[in-house]
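Blinded run. Sample ID left blank on purpose so nobody reads anything into the name before looking at the predicted structure. Input follows.
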Amino acid sequence: MRKPVIALCLILSGAAAFAAPASASPASEMAAYLAKAQDAADSNHLTEAIRSYVAVMAMAQESPSAEADAKSEAAAAELARIGTRLSLEPASEWVDAKGTQQAGSSRSLGKEGGLSPAVYLFENFGTGKSPVADAPIYFQFAKNSGSLISFATTDAYGKANTTVAKLDEPGAEALIRAYPVFKSRGMSYAFSSVFRDFAYLPPANVVKVLALEASELGTSDNPRSVDTVATALKRAGLQAQSINAKLDPDKFRLAYAGDTKALASLGIGASAPYATFVLVDVAAARQMELNGKKYNIFTAAATANVRLVRSDGSVVYAFAIDSIKGQGSSKEAAVADAYKRTGEALGPELQRRQAEIQDSLTKE
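Blinded prediction complete.
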């Protein structure tokens, strides 16, 4: 015989049958995070411990009270102690044979073959140290400006690196700083005293000044325009070195066109990374003739091309002056006067362009 099914019904009015457990108080939640942080630190999970301490400080701001402030101060004290044990070291490619951190080139930053900032984050214990994994490293420009990946996370070896896409002024010094920044519950905590700087230096500002003055009479043994141009470039902040010697015309024109081998043969390289070429071409002199009668008056028109180049052949700045007229009682005198007048015209023209030249030296 089947037993009757007995149903028990509870009729509730305005109240729940079972009360839900009360949510933890901010103070107890903070205490739980402090305990979690200590456990993480003891088990060598430093990144987790730091984030837990930062969470405690964030909760103290969310729910301020005397008890919350006390726990926040305890978390801040632990973070300060951790900070004294942290260190950021440069990656091996930044260290020379003597163990000294070297500088990169601002001209190659962001380009293939250029050095990118890379660090190792360690926790130090006396004479030993341990890599800190999964830690966020913040990279920022401290000098100059540009585009880079701001945050990178350390790998199992504690290494993190960034990629620079662009440097705004490749001809000026740049400094990129890296330091750990941890975030939790919307709050950021930076170990600003634990940082590593990466310097990028511009090329030396030494420029060799070379000139080729050519006419139907050949090339000048002592180009007049060299010293004028060198003086003007010194006013623009360059260490100008004059080369007054007569140069091989073919080699000069190759270097003027950016041929790197020809530039190197003229001493344009690491110690003198710039060259300024002054190419003066004087057209064939013409004798004055009036009503069929020739006079001992000759004129010669000159064109001056000035080009500032780097050792890699790239042009920094260039300009030309046309229709410079020389005059004399012979072809030789007319050509010599054309050279003289060219030199006189170049000084004021370079002075007028000084700001443009300086601006070009700091840009691509």
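Unblinding after everyone has recorded impressions. The longest strand covers residues 293-310.
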